[in-house]
Write a structure and sequence with these properties.
Length: 200
């Protein structure tokens, strides 16, 4: 495995007249699962903000559509992991949703999916897709402010972050729950009972 210095640079290039922030993200090593499979190139990456300040919620409940768990949290933008190499999220992302609603100063997280990036994607698209989350502890910068640059290094490459920081440590997108199926089944049984009553 090619060893590279790992950096995650957050460079805000927004100006006061624009309601967007351009993020130049470089992160590694990012994994596609809990094992040793590196995330591929061209995979789906999303950025979300904790607008209501109560955390991002239970990620293992993330569905096949949408990128947030908390209803009040906001998707900042999506993009591709890039083509720099396996295990790297190495690309520029534009966050267009930084002022409406106002997410500036709110914590944000990087979410990656073991599925190919498609422009306009509205979520993982299917159950069973592995995904990981890195709650950065950083906040969405204000317009016109050049945020600090942050270097994130896993211990594997001499950094302070644990080697499993960028593993997909959360559950895959869940299959439809048996609870939902049970609810449907219960509803059918109720209808059946009603019909029985009608025709009794
Ligand atoms: Ca929240």
């Amino acid at each position: 495995m090619k060893k590279m210095l790992v950096t995650l640079l957050m460079l805000g290039t927004a100006v006061a007249s624009q309601a967007s922030v351009t993020i130049d993200a470089q992160a590694a090593y990012v994994y596609a699962d809990t094992g040793s499979t590196l995330l591929g190139t061209g995979k789906l990456v999303a950025w979300v903000a904790d607008v209501d300040g109560d955390g991002f919620g239970m990620w293992n409940t993330l569905g096949t559509t949408g990128f947030t768990v908390d209803a009040d949290d906001v998707l900042l933008g999506i993009g591709s992991s890039g083509d720099a190499g396996e295990g790297l999220i190495w690309n520029t992302f534009v966050w267009n949703n930084v002022t409406s609603p106002n997410v500036q100063g709110k914590d944000y997280a990087m979410v990656w999916f073991n599925t190919d990036y498609v422009e306009g994607a509205t979520g993982a698209g299917a159950a069973g897709v592995k995904f990981g989350v890195f709650e950065t502890g950083e906040v969405v910068p204000n317009d016109g402010i050049m945020p600090d640059a942050y270097n994130y290094y896993t211990a594997e490459v001499g950094g302070t972050l644990a080697n499993n920081t960028f593993h997909a440590t959360y559950q895959s997108i869940p299959e439809p729950t048996t609870a939902v199926l049970a609810l449907i089944g219960g509803g059918l049984a109720y209808v059946a009972r009603r019909k029985q009553n009608i025709f009794a």
